């Protein structure tokens, strides 16, 4: 059997175990069936006898108005993908500033997960204020030698551990960019849950930037899709480029309905998810120690959002298999997939706490860790 075939079979086994488990901290995006996803569309707060959409009107327009209201911006535009949305936003700002250089972290999404699309597709160049696994600081921006037209800030910085700066650091960072005559764009794929850490409202957070991108599936559980929000004239320009990039899809009402449902159902719950994530993170440390694990790291020690990293000194495949066996044999999902994306001998996974995990107690975490370690 080829490596690809083995991985496909393992994925099927993982998803089956996750679906069959009675206890879990969250539900994987791979778990829902077609029927379940279609059924969830009926939960959207939208008149089902109303218009669908034709090239972005109807329910898509309703979603755009909702996002603009939530973020406190003049306008918002729906995009089929966040990759397209951000490329277009950065391209438009480059045209307006006359500078094609984008200052961003090397661990940010465009640098790690988009195949160098900013350069290959949009003709932009990048500069890195810092290479450290933390959000960039005002001092980093001030010290950047090359002039840049746009500062892109990923909130939170997912690959570094879903990290956020403090509110004061974020204010100083945006001020530093404007002192360099640059505009500020927030990669807010997971911006929705950052209000707890910042202690600020969504309009206050979005108000620090010239434009903001938000995702509809990463925290809200939508089918797919994203939005760009900002000044009306700027958003109108991005709509022109959306058509040029092939994003003017004839009908997108399923994505728009699922986004509205997520905003209605998940957005109010996110603060409770963050609080529960902090409880789980705090319980994991003594649970690993009591189970005889020689070393473990929770990153960050107190999660900034409802997602965080766990590092252990074992092979990634071994840990993934242990988690799979735990799900199959006990009906409990603690960890899902592990990655070797780090120093040799260490593996990392991401934990996300959502509605299924709200009932967990510290005792539940200790019990699940003990069962997991026993299967390593």
From TrEMBL:
UniProt keyword Heme, yes or no: no
The keyword Transport is assigned to this record: no
InterPro entries given in the database record: ArAA_b-elim_lyase/Thr_aldolase, PyrdxlP-dep_Trfase, PyrdxlP-dep_Trfase_major, PyrdxlP-dep_Trfase_small
Needed cofactors: pyridoxal 5'-phosphate
Top-level division of the source organism's lineage: Bacteria
Pfam families: Beta_elim_lyase
Keyword annotations: Pyridoxal phosphate
Aromatic amino acid beta-eliminating lyase/threonine aldolase domain: residues covered: 53-282
SUPFAM superfamilies recorded: PLP-dependent transferases
Similarity-based family: Belongs to the threonine aldolase family.
Protein name: Threonine aldolase
